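Hi P.,

Sorry for the delay on this. The queue was packed all week, but I finally got your sequence through. Input first:
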Amino acid sequence: MAVRLNITMEEDLYKRLKTELPPKRISAFINDAVRARLRPDKAALDAGYKAARRDRARQELAEEWQHTETEGWPE
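Then the structure:
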């Protein structure tokens, strides 16, 4: 659910937003920027890790490089 809020920003920054973004996209842009700047929540991290675990190409790459993780270490 979206909430409405009032913010204050520098005038030159606001002018750039108005110039560079399509109409009615400033809120979405600010929302995305704030989301990117904040730490991801646990659910998003878990979903990302699970997706990476299922990625076959990532698994094959990890297997190819596995020997370099322990090579040369004393046993």
